[in-house]
Give the backbone structure.
Amino acid sequence: MLAAPLRSLPRPSRLTAPLGLKGRSAEAAATLGLDTVGDLLEHLPDRHLDRREGRDLASLAPGEEATVGVVVKEIASRPMRRRRGVRVEARVADDSGPALAIWFNQPWVARQLAPGSNVLLRGALKGRNEFHVREWESFEAADAPVHTRGLVAMYPAAAGITKRLLRELAQRARDAVRDAAEPLPASLRVAERLPDRPAALAAAHFPDADAEFETGRRRLAFEELLLLELALGRRRRARDAARRGSPLELSGELVDSWHASLPFELTGEQRTAVAEVDRDLAAEQAMQRLLMGEVGSGKTVVALHAMLRAVESGRQAALMAPTETLAEQHLATLDRLLGGLVPIALLTGSTPAPRRRELLGRLESGELGLLVGTHALIEPPVRFRDLAVTVIDEEHRFGVRQRDALVAKAPEGRTPHLLHLTATPIPRTLELTSYGDLETTALRELPSGRRPVETHVVSGERARARAYERIREEIGRGRQCFVVCPLVEESEALQAHAATVEAERLRVSEFRDHRVALVHGQLPSRDKAAAMREFASGSADVLVATSVIEVGIDVPNATVMLIEEAERYGLSQLHQLRGRVGRGAHGGLCVLFGDAKLPRLEAIATETDGFRLAEIDLELRGAGEVLGTRQSGLPRLKFATLPEDEELLVLGRAWAERLLEQDPELEAADNMLLRAAVDARFGPQASEAPEPSFDERSAVGRQPRSQV
Ligand code: ADP
Ligand code: MG
């Protein structure tokens, strides 16, 4: 070490040196996050233009864009003939012959280029041997042309700082790549055959061959995602250590006979889910598991399994749902699945006071083992004797405080096991980033084998008339139909108004011979319930609704759904809405009014799998958009783009787990630089960062690459 020549040691100070810009361009650089040479080197090009081939003037076909190297013979600026502005004209020549080079509205060029200059011109030949210049640079024999020759870097630019300037700055900083410190342990780099950091930076900025850029970028993206996963992994570990659970015994006394009593066999996925839950419940640390699966995928059975494990151990379990309707539905399903095996009760805001008092008493004595309800569960008077398992349905509809309030119902010093249920599938990319602190289980198949809903996107009056005709036929066969009105995000009142107007229109026109009910979020809950009942009982044929029907309606006889202005809805919302039909024996039809060419609508028409749709949604919108990057505690990614780099993310997670397994604090000599990089990038407090709420927990992602 000591014998090594000094000048070969990295000099990180070169990377922390300021860029040396002044005034407006310094401000513009700052908006791109570029203050130092190091920042600049981490500002990668989006792509490179291939300008490797230099051409002779004589070989150019008209209109063909090319780079030529010429000598200026004579140059002048003159007013344009037909338009306002000036053009600079230069007589130029190369070995193959002469041409007239033209610059439009750049009078300064005439001052910058003197006769006799060597210059590279990028542009195309137009009529009468004129070469229209798009980009140019003068060069002397020793120069490496950066704007017009070779693989030309295209940097994300901003107002006040051009690609051209960024290219020049990068050239100037070129030597500093050697100072970049290598955070990755050598064993990892060897195993994954990754170039070192200086080589990766050089390849990404100054590639000699097409593939080099991507090789360099991938290495940097992998490193970035590894750092992210290490930060998340350390946070998860710190939290796990602090979360003393209540390990359950899993005697099987109750649960085995319950399984035997079920009228169906669990699907393979349900069996896997149950096994994962059991493993969690028996562990010292409290379970934190997310169970995702579409409506009807059989989540409730798995949840009840977890809840019964608590009862089996003489403890208690609670399920919290976001609305009364959902809580009631859960109770009905659970009741049916339990077949009277264990008492279960419902507690909501509308539970009458005497009943409520009685419930609270039985809960506190421990006589009541299972409770289902709404927010009413977290009110202070609700006290459990020994709450060990909590299930939260559609948790994203609750805030952290509500969840914590439920968790706090467990005995002092204990964290109850927590199972989250969601019908909105979470793509793998988000699972591994925003949801990095939850274990996940997915139920992809539907046990009842529901038939896919036939889906059409249509527009125009004729298609509309046909759709109504089709609905009338269905009604004629005794079926029912939803009409979903446009989403008005800004105002629920406007949306309600539109629904009311539409219901009135349909009552006197298309469905004048049928019974039309109306439901929207502004109705008093009594009226809402009445409308729902009317539809559920079959006394209304058509239900005109706003997006309030997204959750919680189960009418197997409804077979058609018509969605107005479908482009206003998000992909997952459309899928949730569509899930309201085709639940019975009759199949289903969904007609969306909108532009069939819109990628989102094309996706919903052709794809029925909710998990696949969630992935498409992520691809269409980009990870940063899906849940909003701003409120996520995580910084934007510089090198990786999600979900495109998902494969690197998965690899990063695997390596993070392996490294933390062996060296939880990353304090071994080989890992020290890695640890420093994690701290520098994701904060030294990463392991103590507050856990984000489900709403806030959101995607990370780079800005979409700028279009050049
Ligand atoms: P989710 O909560 O995911 O919407 P549920 O658990 O309510 O789904 O299940 C939907 C329906 O399917 C219920 O009637 C349930 O009894 C039934 N079910 C669940 N698992 C199975 C299975 N393995 N085989 C047959 N039916 C099932
Ligand atoms: Mg359910």
